Amino acid sequence: MIDHDSPISLTPVSGGTLAQSIVSEQANEHWNLPEGTILASGVRRGTSLMIDIVIVTTLLMLATKWELLHVWILETWRTQPHYSLAYTFVLLASHWLYWRITGLWYSRSLGQKMMGLAIVCSDGSALTSEMWDRRAIRKLVYLIPLVNIGVGAYEVARIFQRHTHQTNLDLKIGTIVAHANSLPPASRKHIR
Fold first, then answer.
1. Which of 31, 101, 145, 166 fits as disulfide partner to 170, beta carbons 3.0 to 4.6 Å?
2. Backbone angles phi, psi at 175, to 5 degrees
3. pLDDT (tens digit, 9 = 90+) per residue, 38-48?
4. What percent of the chain has pLDDT over 90?
C-alpha cells in the first residue's frame, strides 16, 4: 500500500477547507439564481400542471362533443386504432400548442399564472421561442397514462434534491420556476 497514492484525498486541491471545496463543487452543478428569488415547490408546480391539463382537455372535450374520450378507451384502440390515434394526435398537438403559445404570450401557462409562478432563464431573462418549443414538447410525457406517474414522481424527487428546485427538464433548457412576485423587477417585466 505504500507504493501508490490513495484514491481518497482529504486535502483540498484548490486551498480552503474540505467543506469549502465540497460547497464550491456543488455550486458549480447548479444555475445562479437572481437575488431574492423564491423558488416554486413541487406541489405548486404539480398543481399548475394539473390545472393546465384540465383546461385544455375540457375545451377539447367540449369541442369534440366528448369524442376525445376514445383516447382512453382500450376497446376503441383495439377495434378502431386509427380513430384513437387521430384523437391522440389532437390531444398532444393541442397541449403542445397551449404550452407554447401561453409561454410566448404570458411567459407562463394559465395554470402557472393562477398559482403565481413564472418561468425564466437561470439568469432571470425571458425564454426564447426555441426554449418554449423544447419545454412544451417535453411536457407531453405527462399526458401518457402510467408513464406520467413515474416521470412525475421522479421529477418531484429531483425538485427536492436540488437547491434550485429544478427538474431535469429545467436543467436541460436552463430555466427556473419561481414565484413571479419574488423575481427582481427587471426579470419579471416580460411576465403577464
1. 166
2. -120, 165
3. 888 888 999 99
4. 43
